[in-house]
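dumping these here so i dont lose them again. two proteins, back to back, each one seq then structure tokens. dont judge the mess
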Amino acid sequence: MRGADLMVQALVQEGVQEIFGYPGGAIMPFYDALYGAPLRHILCRHEQGAALAACGYARASGRVGVCVATSGPGATNIVTALADALLDSVPLVALVGQVARPLIGTDAFQEIDVLGMTLPLVKHSYLVSSPDELGEVLAEAFELARGGRPGPVLVDIPKDIQLGRVPAGYRPRPWHAARPANEHAIRQARALMAEAARPLLYIGGGVVLAEAVNALREFVDVTQMPAVCTLKGIGVLPHHHLLNLGMLGMHGTQAANRAVQQCDLLIAVGARFDDRATGQLDTFAPLARVIHLDIDLAEIGKLRKAEVALTDDFNHVLPGLSMPLQVDPWRAQCLADKAGYAFRYDAPGPAIYAPAFLQALSQSMPDDAIVCCDVGQHQMWVAQHMGFNLPRQHLSSGGLGTMGFGLPAAIGAQIAFPERTVINVSGDGSFMMNVQELATIGRYQLPVKIVLLDNAMLGMVKQWQELFFDARYSETDLSDNPDFTQVAAAFGIPARSIHTQAEQAEALQCLLAEPGPMLLHIKIDRRTNVWPLVPPGKSNLDMMEGALSCEVV
């Protein structure tokens, strides 16, 4: 058996059905073995697009995403996606071709030290050094990618090992049963909960990764405790759940941030106290004692001391913590803030107000639609104004903030769930960063719906220049954007453009009724900003608010 044949066998036995990649010299033996194999390969138009599509596939499905690239520039092009997967704990295996072993270290054509280059960006990297270890390395890579706190694993495979003979037979690693919960820590946590007058739940994306959404929802129902969430925790509690106060942090809701600052007990579940959520760390939840649940021991005490830490399976821990709490006054106060600081959508003017449009989109799309956004103002508007009731329904590049993420991620999500509606909400800056993947959508006729909010600016950077750099708009003007409807048409994708609120309802209906892919280009006012905003380095109570603006564009 050739090494390349074993690679294919490994993917099949790991249950992989779809992979994303781009062929090239050092990975050609694998592509030869792939010919006729029972795997579906999605040919993207750039290695970064392929790797981000694999990320989107993994985020939407919970399965390991697999991307493939050749050596040299193929390998360097997937680096951003590896970092994206690391910071958001996405299970990803990257198979990369390498020059033949005798050429390693000689500056051979398309040779790059991808092992060294990616060490800080992955959960683990391998350079396969002998044919005998190929099977073991691949099995360990899948085990590491999906086990514990998920993450990306890179396997660098020299071309001569792909072509040469290797031991036949592949043995996937078995799943490890979760250990029992720490009963002593659970008793300590319950004691803190019983003493608290103002407890608050702080939900992170780790709840989704742990497949513990049902356990957490039951915990909320029993305790009747108010809850806030991170960007990646959106959808864990249904949007309309009474006790869901929304996202906290820099662009969080007033109700969420006010609750965090006033609570006397914060129960963090699968959240890592990152700076976008906490603002100035030493002012974050200043009155609260902390119970921290996280499977990754490295997160405990990293940024905030925890009075009680639990690193066991949430599905075992949360039922042990569940008990009714007598916190009626606190709950009433949180709900009053939620009602009193609710978002408004009555921006004056006939132009399209992006938050109102996204709210309308949210109310019109199917209940299980998947929304993949890019990075910038539109990303925060999606988080604030679209309602998500399911986990893995809102895909967003949280930790790395990767512009160009949305379109390939939508491709991956659509491949994972061909029967569901997948929507890519993008901005004009982000969209141009992986615009070539329109060809992938066209090739496979993926029915991805693209909502492109175009303010002819790098909007979020412009907003910060306006607020914190004396309105010195340095290199944020994108008024020379192409005609996006013609760009889409060139790839065989129908498109239309709208400018006014009067066109909005019919355009939305048309977009969602389109059986295939479609791009809806929406011209918005470049002066519209994202509110509220916590200035960098400030407390979450220092939220700035601005006027609703929506003039003719």
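---- next one ----
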Amino acid sequence: MLHVEKIKPLSKEFLESIGFYWHTDADQTSYVADELVLVSNDEVEAYYAAANELYDMFAEAGQYVIDNNLFHELNIPFNLVELIKNSWSNDVHWHLYGRFDFAGGVDGKPIKLIEFNADTPTSLYETAIIQWAMLKANGMDEAKQFNTVFEALKENFKRLVVLGGNPEDFAEYYEGWKILFSSIRGNIEDENTTRLLQTAANEAGFHTDFAYVDKVGFSGSEGIFKGDENFEYWFKLVPWENIAIEEGDLALLLDEIVREQKAIILNPAYTLLFQSKAFMKVLWDLFPNHPLLLETSFDPLKGKKQVEKRAFGREGANTIIYDSDMSVMAKTEGEYGNFKPIYQAYAELPRDSEGQSYQAGVFFAYEGCGLGFRRGGLIMENFSKFVGHRIKD
């Protein structure tokens, strides 16, 4: 059984003072639990090692997808294929950050990859800032947490310039290139998450600015602008599949901008390959029976407890858990039903004494850098709670 400890919660006034306004769910319950999951050093080391090993596997499998033109199998929109290839072919399109979702890893259960949120992962603010503040507010040792997310982001921003070199050499190679950060107007969670990333880039040494997406100018031949100012990098907290499907003209412009080397877009378009849940099938084919993977197929698995989900679903939407006789154990509705289904072997999530389930999320920015948990029922969805953690030994 997974163990948690009760703590004094952070007040709404404090949370809002540091920009965290999405503290209360629509049902008026707190989104952030007033408890911490207790983990051991060995468990933390295992999460760290799993994230690093899996990222290497994703990179190998990504090359396999490119070489074998498997974009249709991954449900990749056709108007992003060339942009994905272009971004994959040049190291300057550096992957800034992502989040692995795991079953297991505590209470003796093996770590199993559920999916990789490689493009626009949520819970960054909670993992990097809020759970650290929870330790501090409760007089606990702030070092007793697997959480170097903010520092890792700063280092990875420096790698946009030094690439495979030493991030400490950033100032030697930096020539004043600017990053424009953007989110959708009217979504405070997305905006403040984006501004947190902007702060990390500033502290890394970049010149930066912020503009809502509707205020950004795009030119296929000249690049990306805020007003008359041109930016060499554009960070957008907008999923690539949304750009492809809802903003087809913008997808064409971004394709030309990258092809003409007028700007670099973060996260790169190739992260959509990793984001596709159908990528789990490619991984299983390339690394069959790997201990970190769950069997995944484009067709229902025979005689096995399994999860059906869509290639591009978010917050647990359009998910069905089947028992081994294919009777439905749990189901969520959603708006992603038009995407391709995949079927993944079911892995039971660790539970606490009240029977609540916990899913681990491990952020990756060049290496594993931070752990957080979501708590809910069999399917983690929009009302699942964020639970911080503390290393107990």
